Amino acid sequence: MDRINVPELFGSLVFNDKEMKARLSDDVYASLKKTIDENVRLDEKVADAVAEEMKNWALENGATHFTHWFQPLTGVTAEKHDSFITPTSDNEVIMEFSGKELIKGEPDASSFPSGGLRATFEARGYTAWDPTSYAFIKDHTLCIPTAFCSYSGEALDKKTPLLRSMQAINRQTLRILRLFGNDTVKYVRTSVGPEQEYFLVDKEVFNKRPDLIYTGRTLFGAMPPKGQEMDDHYFGVIKPRVREFMEDLNQELWKLGILAKTEHNEVAPAQHELAPIYSTTNVATDANQLTMEIMKKVASRHGMECLLHEKPFAGVNGSGKHNNWSISTDTGVNLLSPGKTPYENAQFLLFLCAVIQAVDDYQDLLRLSVATAGNDHRLGANEAPPAIISVFLGAELSAILEAIKEDKPYKGTEEVKMKLGVHSLPRFSRDTTDRNRTSPFAFTGNKFEFRSLGSSNSIACSNIMLNAAVAESLRQYADELEKSENFENDLHELIKRVITEHQRILFDGNGYGEEWVKEATEVRGLSNLRTTADAMPHLLDEKNKKMLKQHKIFTDAELESRCEIMLDNYVKTVNIEGLTMVDMVRKNYLPAIERYLFRLAETTSYMRQVSDKVKCNYEVTTMERLSELTDYIMNAVIELEEALSELKTISDIFKASEYVRDTLLPRMDHVRKHVDEAEMLTSQRDWPFPSYGQLLFSVK
Ligand code: ADP
Ligand code: MG
């Protein structure tokens, strides 16, 4: 490949700070910068000036259209393209773009899920520019990152509440920092680095599997002789075809200013991971949406299909997304990093406590923020991370908290009695903290890693809940400490109290084990919400609604609509899977087994004509079992069909989701079990679809 100049390539399709500075007048630039950094409203003249330069830049870079790029509740991104052309009186066109068009768009909102938020008479919604996430060019179109709302102002997307949650945590964090005497920090931001897992399979093989095409996962398939048991894929040598894909992908992402950094093979065959360098949460969210889209596009260019489903193959590791999260100030201080002075350490411990308490108080919100039909196959099953949310701190930090709680000396490098504001904490190295890979929520040195996200999830939902819950802990602390007359003392007592009260959420052991489920639920009283149907209704629990409303992140109507949309999505997803199963069984599997049975029967009868000594044991026993299986399969499919029709009659979405969990999914498992057994007994020549082995080892 030609040598590429990465610094030159990087951000070449982004209207970033460098472009703005170079193109905008000093006044306009300063005013826009204030909007970006401090959330100050943009005035219309400035918007016009920005729009003009943005358009010129876009035209120079080959764009013909513009779009307000947004993230409706479908989980994917949406765009409606308008060209820049404006007719002139002499039948020519000029390329125009106004500040108004930049700031606000009016897509027809009626085809996006709104969960009853938007009556048909106000089908219009509007998109509003998010100037904190840079505009970029994709497919000759200038894409302007926007938020999407109904005409009455209710959020119809994932970005609006995300931005609100960032403001909430900013507000509360500033209150805390002021208490520590910090008057210089102007704002704080949360940052995220999402590590993205995915599978690559050959396109030709993919195209032969209707289940992959319609549902993104295999609904059938017996285990191949070789799976992931050899552990030979993790960090293994990357195959040439995958390497070429990764190089191409990196370049596409770099052009869009996405900081693609690490790439490696994952545990399962055909599984890989990409991690970017972390950035501000809303920017990271936009970037992750783009990354997923571009992964699919680039894979296709290389004759492959990129699978982002959480569990494309039963019995093989699923794909997740690790949400590395931290809070930092505009002065460059990471508040989750232990400081150098005892005072900084006390502040660090308070933020640590805020996260611990947040995760404990809002386990259900974190769990439901990652709940989808696809992710249930990981979280509810015996796979990391478990559905039970707990926090891993590592031995060193746990020992420090224990010492504070018990007023006992901490045996670190030297034995000290931990008195906040007096003693220094040791620096935590990553090595001592990041040992446990089974924890859903782990402290990794200077950030928390939330590992429960599914590979196809938008990271917005998790970060909304995380920001909100931490903002709430901080609000409580600020309310209490602002009244304090002896700050140091009260701070110490508060930290001690929080550690004691939220001890139960801390767990450093093996999150897979059956013992943990028992201990977590029976002894500690933690929640174990195994499926979307179990988790999602908690969005409407009074305590959760109260908190999310108090921090102005959601309204009642928005919460109700979201709950409905997410459950509806769960029901529809599984429904499509069920229908696909029926289709594959009736049209392909049963006829295929039938064909093979016929061949066996034919062979047997021929052989017996030739000699009466042949027993045809193989043929006969195989026939007997296969024939039995076809009956089982048929019955199981009829039961599945009945469940699918029954589902149609259930109009209450909560009941429908329970029906899916309790009846539809078990019936699907039933069908699958018999088909998979039949696969092992049927000649490969007669089997209608590529096997697991052929899929998982399809990319050479
Ligand atoms: P891993 O061993 O899990 O791959 P890395 O240190 O490589 O760990 O980081 C994983 C992700 O965490 C990367 O996306 C990285 O940019 C991100 N990350 C690192 N530091 C921070 C931080 N302070 N805040 C948020 N994310 C961070
Ligand atoms: Mg990680």
Question: Which features characterize this protein?
Answer:
globular, 49% helix, seven-stranded mixed β-sheet, binds adenosine-5'-diphosphate, 24 helices, nine-stranded mixed β-sheet, binds magnesium ion, alpha+beta, 700 residues
How is this structure best summarized?
The protein contains 24 helices and 20 strands.
Model description:
- By secondary structure, the protein is of the alpha+beta class.
- The strands form four sheets. Strands 10, 11, 12, 13, 14, 15, 16, 19 and 20 form a nine-stranded mixed beta sheet that branches. Strands 1, 2, 3, 6, 7, 8 and 9 form a seven-stranded mixed beta sheet that branches. A two-stranded antiparallel ribbon has the order 4-5.
- Helix 3 packs across helix 4 (44-60) and helix 21 packs parallel to helix 23.
- The longest helix has 55 residues, at 556-610.
- The radius of gyration is 28 Å and the shape is globular.
- The protein starts with 5 loop residues before the first helix and ends with a helix.
- The structure holds adenosine-5'-diphosphate and magnesium ion.
